[in-house]
Amino acid sequence: MDNETSTGHVTRKAVLRAALAAGMAAPAVLMGVPALARTLTAGEAVPALTPACDDGDDPTPPQTEGPYFKPNSPRRTSLLEAGTPGIRLTVSGYVFGLACKPIPGVLLDFWQADTNGAYDNSGFRFRGHQFTDARGAFALTTIVPGLYPGRTRHLHVKLQAPGRPVLTTQLYFPNEPRNNTDTIFDPRLLMTVRDAGGAREAAFDFVLNVPQDPGPSPTPSPTGTPGGTWAAGTAYRAGDTVTYGGPGYVCLQAHTAQAGWEPPNVPALWRLR
Ligand SMILES: [Fe+2]
Question: Ligand 1 center to residue 67 CA distance, Å?
Fold first, then answer.
């Protein structure tokens, strides 16, 4: 996975710290899905761009004029309307550029099927656009989209950073049977999803092809690796304990450790003791 770096440096992105400080929901399901871009280690990898994905049922008119995409959908972060049936879903995350810095003011235009798998092609049910905030964060409140013939479960989204081209893509759900048979499905677009009292909480970080000043180089740790009992390649189970760079950590979810998933980097997997 391009998003996972291969060095033992313990330095982390300022954006990661910002994300944690902001209390972003930590993904509870990491196995089999891409790492969130916010877990990238500073200065050590070019983030993998979020790929485009389109199934042709996009009724949003293409951009015809002006430097900026102008969707017709209402500006709103919640697609829920009174009496909306369906399993509640929140999707939150960040939009990053090529230096893995968050981008404020990115337009995200979401649309999806209702719980029965139907799109509203005459009105704006389950359609809405929003902009990333000063931290490059977005949050959508909606329902889990229903299935329709020929496709696996998905959300549509168009993204546009100021003055940049539109990216049209989709987001997917882990552990969907149809993911394996849908020819449009792309595992790089899997969200991390967890159950939350009957609702679903999903996270996804987008990476757009937006040049950014990488800023000052991170300071590598003097020894290269901070030391401890944690080791890449080890299969850890929930409750296992390790040390890394001095502090101890408790494993929250079974996984096989790999470079880039050092305990300080993945709060979804390791809790500081
Ligand atoms: Fe669709």
Answer: 26
